[in-house]
Design goal:
This protein is an alpha/beta fold and 164 residues long. It has five helices and six strands. Helix 2 links the parallel strand 2 and strand 3. Helix 1 packs across helix 2 and helix 3 crosses helix 4. The chain is globular. It starts with a strand and ends with a helix. The model has no long low-confidence stretch (mean pLDDT 97).
C-alpha cells in the first residue's frame, strides 16, 4: 500500500501592515495568484488530496482557499512554524491515503529534506520558496508506518514554473 503526502509552503504574504501579528498576515496579490496556479497544477497532474491539515495562520488558510480543492481541512496552531518532529507527529494522526499539509519555512524545507530518500533534482527544493509543493509517496500501510528518508519524491514544483 502507498500513502502520499503533498507538502506545500504557504503562498507569498503581505508585509504592508506592520501592526499585524505574524500569525495574522494575509496573502498579497502575487500569493493569491500563485496559490490558484498551484491548485490548477495539482489538478492537472492528478495530485488530488483526500484531506488537508494546515497551520492556523491567516496566510496558510488563504493559501488553502485559493487552491480551490473541495476536501475537508483542519487548521491547527501546532503547525504554525513547526519543526520536522512536530510535523511528523501531526501527519501520523492522519488516516486518509493522500494528505495535503500546509505550513511554513524553515520547518517545511527541513521536513521535506528529512522525509525523502533522495531529494528531487530541482534547484529550489532545498530552500522551498513560497507555495513550493512536493508530492512524496511512501510504501506503508498508513502514516504511523512511515519514517525518515523513506519517501520517494514523485513531483516538485514552484509557482513561477507552473505560471509560465
Amino acid at each position: 500500500m502507498t500513502v502520499t503526502l503533498i507538502l506545500m509552503r504557504h503562498a507569498k504574504s503581505a508585509w504592508d501592515d506592520p501592526s499585524l501579528d505574524d500569525h495574522d498576515r494575509p496573502l498579497n496579490d502575487r500569493g493569491k495568484a500563485s496559490a490558484q496556479a498551484m491548485g490548477d497544477w495539482l489538478r492537472a497532474q492528478g495530485h488530488l488530496p483526500d484531506t488537508a491539515i494546515s497551520s492556523s495562520s491567516t496566510r496558510t488558510g488563504q493559501t488553502f482557499a485559493e487552491l480551490r480543492l473541495d476536501i475537508p481541512v483542519s487548521f491547527t496552531r501546532t503547525l504554525y512554524h513547526a519543526g520536522p518532529e512536530v510535523m511528523m507527529e501531526v501527519l501520523r494522526d492522519q488516516s486518509a491515503p493522500t494528505v495535503l499539509m500546509l505550513g511554513h519555512n524553515p520547518g517545511i524545507a527541513d521536513f521535506a529534506d528529512r522525509l525523502v530518500e533522495q531529494p528531487p533534482r530541482h534547484p529550489r527544493f532545498a530552500d522551498y520558496p513560497t507555495c513550493a509543493t512536493a508530492v512524496i509517496t511512501f510504501e506503508a500501510k498508513g502514516w504511523n508506518d512511515i519514517g525518515w528518508r523513506e519517501g520517494q519524491p514523485i513531483d516538485f514544483a514552484i509557482p513561477r514554473e507552473v505560471m509560465e
